[in-house]
Each structure stands twice: as structure tokens, then as C-alpha cells.
Amino acid sequence: MDWQEIEVFLAVADELHFGRAAERLGLSQARVSRMVQKLERRVGALLFDRTTRRVSLTPIGQQLLADLAPAHQSVLDSIARAQTAGRGISGVLDVGFLGPLAGRVLLDIVDTLRSTQPNLEIQLHTTEVADPCGPLRDNEFDLLLTQFPVTEPGITTGPVVIVEPCVLAVSAQHPLARNDTVSLEDLATDRIFRPAGSPPSQWLESYQPWTTPSGQPIDRGPAVRTFQELMTLIAAGQGICTVAAHNTRYHPRTDVAYIPMTDAPPFEFGLVWRTNAETTRVQAFSETTKRLVDEWGGPTATATW
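RESULT FIELD:
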């Protein structure tokens, strides 16, 4: 059974008229009739009841139509997707990021994607620590490179892109500033700032626990909305906070000391997007990111940038 036989059968089944089906396919009516007869011989039964006044499907013809139509449409859809891929992806993709290192890594991802999809316009936007996924939920972003873990319903988690150590930010005048390293136990010596708004609860459990490993309570300081506000309050000696190691280079300050932590879990950053909005543009960005992470030998560390 060749493709033209399928097209002829479906056209006649749709039009229920040999002349209109022939005109639609750009074939002669005689050729359409011969192809239907050939198909009927192949099947071993009539597919159409023909009279001088009307054409109708036989029960076997109805069954063949029910079986063939979805498969035929699936083939057409596959060809259309391949053609779209061949022509490239166009449109606008809004990508958010949390923190300067995430923004810097995005530049490499964007450069790579633009080399293969020059018609795709990518716009980058920053988000705030108070609610990094807020713009994603509000349909302002298509994708977000943010701190993990993210376990919100309706949000798909993509590849981990960045893994780096945790450091403790304290005032340069703080007693801990003289230490070469600190541990989670040291968090009980001062109050620790927390993000304002609705940051993922997993963040607080992973990086700002309520107690030290030995059970000492950790005092929570006031909520802060931006990283700049956090650094100012730390410099003023009003509290301390765990942060990702890249801040030692992106936010160096003479009045703030960053001390390596020996037992805190590393920070991870990765891609997330709305599950019900996984477009071809989102897929292309995610696939490019995965390929680059593989080329880097895995999620990158802060030293790369």
C-alpha cells in the first residue's frame, strides 16, 4: 500500500465524491477510481458503496478510515516538525536568572544557541531572592536559571548547571572573620538573615537550618529582599549569612569577609520551566544547556568564570 493510495482513499472518504476528491488531489477522476479499485482488491472487500446518486463508506471502509486517519495525521505532523527544525526556531524566549554567576553562565548558553538558531530572540532578566520563581509562575519568564532545589507543582526541573561551595559572609569586624574556615556549628554564634517573601522552603532547610548538627538553635535575623541589602546589613554587623562562593569575586567588599565552610552542602543552580509551557523554544534551550554541561564535564564550578 503506497502513500498515494492512502491519500486517495482518505480524500474520497472525506469528500464522498470521486470527482471532488480527484480535483482536490490534482488527479483525473479515472485515476482516482482505479486506485480505489486497486486498494479494494488489496483489502479483499469493497470500501465504498457507489450508486449514480451517492458514495458512502462500507463498514470495512469505515474501519479502515478510523485506523488510517490518525496514523496519516501523525506522519504529517512528524514531517511538519522536521520541516520546522530544518527552518530553525523563531520567536522570543524570556530567560530569567538568579545571581551574577547564573547570568554569566547564561551568556555562554545563549551564544551557543544563537549559533544554531539565529532567528530565536533571547531576552535575559534578573529575578530576586525573595521569590525567584515568581516571574516564572506569572508567565513573565519561559525559563529560569536559579538556585536548587525547586520542587513546586507545575514546574519542571532541568539540568544542574552550576555546583559550587558554600561560604559564610560576616562583617570584617566579626570574631569569625579571623577564622580560616567555619562550620555549621558556628551559625549558632549569631543571627542568620533569611530571604523575604516566599523563597523555596528547601533552601532554608538546606542552607539555613533551624539548628546546628549538635542541636544548637540558630537565631533567624530580619528578612532581606535583595543581595545588596543583605551585604549592607552584614557589613553593619547585624547578622551573618551563608552564600554561594562566587560572591567572593562578584561582590568583593572590604567590610565583609567570606569564610569557607567545611561541612555545608554545596550550592546548586539549574534550569526550571513551567511544565505546561514546554515549547520547542524551551526544549531547544534546555537541550543546548545539557549539551554544554556534558562538554564542560559536568556542572561547572565557580572557577570556570
